[in-house]
Amino acid sequence: MAFRTLTVDDNDGIVTLAIDRPGVLNALSRQTLTELQRFLTGLTGFRGMILTGSGERAFVAGADIREMAAMTPEEGEEFGRLGQEVTRLIEAAPFPVIACVNGYALGGGCELAMACDYIYATADAVFGQPEVRLGLIPAFGGCVRLQRHVAPGRAREMIYTGRNVDAGEALRIGLVNRVFVTREEMLEAAYESLALVSANSPVAVALSKEVVNDSRGREIGAALDIEAHAFRRAFTSEDMHEGTQAFLSKRRPAFPGK
User: Fold this and answer.
1) What local confidence, expressed as pLDDT, does residue 43 receive?
2) Which structural domain range is residue 167 located in?
3) Residue 229 maps to which CATH number?
4) Does 140 map to a domain?
């Protein structure tokens, strides 16, 4: 695929996807969201993905305000639903996605990061949902996902006040997993994490991600039922037979991924 606002680098099945509009701090325009939608639809063959932004100043500083200022209510809803679709596609990817955040991750940028499986950040990273300062609300999933990443009271405070949090606070409240000094260290650590994941059964990783996502917020009985059904499905896979036989034979498994 050819893109104007994205760059894609596939390194042996671990793909780095970068929002590439550094001149406007990687702001999410209609075109950028549409290109993300195109790339993320029906993804197969990857073992993991790193989502980041080009340049040194921002992951994604937010949605393109110049575009939004001219939108009708109907166009605004359509724009919001496009952003929601992109975040849903990230969340549904059948492999782990790590957000690597340096600089600003505000508004739509914070929402993109929260759709990933976990977030790594540099010490200069800044997170926030400042939409209320513009007379808007977080609409790419921020109102829903932020309270799943941090305590509901903290989520409400961030959304209602529009205040930003730095990398240290984001780490303390559980929004990010790890903080690094440099962007290079962060990207290297993300690749190493995905390399560890890729040594495991792709089927089991995908099923685990599915259960984690689908069971969230459900009553415990319903959540455990989802887990039990996924456990049964694991028994139908070639990966399960390869993994158990390798363990019994004291050899390294060669998972076929099916």
Assistant:
1) 87
2) 6-198
3) 1.10.12
4) yes
Dihedral over Cα of 246, 251, 256, 257: its sign:
positive
| DSSP, residue by residue, 178-213 | EEESSHHHHHHHHHHHHHHHHTS-HHHHHHHHHHHH
Question: Considering the domain boundaries, does residue 65 fall inside one?
Answer: yes
Q: What does the pLDDT read at residue 42?
A: 87
Kindly state whether residues 43 and 112 are assigned to the same domain: yes
Overall domain count for the chain: 2
Task: Just list the catalytic residues.
Answer: 111, 131
Cα dihedral: 64, 69, 72, 76 (round 10): 30
**Whether residues 166 and 218 fall in one domain:** no
d(Cα 14, Cα 46) in Å, to the nearest integer? 6
Residue 192 corresponds to which tokens in the numbers above? 């190493």
pLDDT, mean of each 10-residue run, the chain (258 residues):
93 95 96 98 92 96 95 97 98 97 98 98 98 97 96 97 98 98 97 96 96 95 97 97 97 95
* Cα(105)–Cα(121) distance, integer angstroms: 10
97 lies in the same domain as 149 = yes
pTM: 0.95
Question: Residue written as tokens 């792709």?
Answer: 202
The answer to whether 169 and 191 are in contact (CB under 8 A) is no
Q: Whole-angstrom Cα distance, residue 257 to residue 139?
A: 36
User: What is the C-alpha separation between 209 and 215, in angstroms, rounded?
Assistant: 10
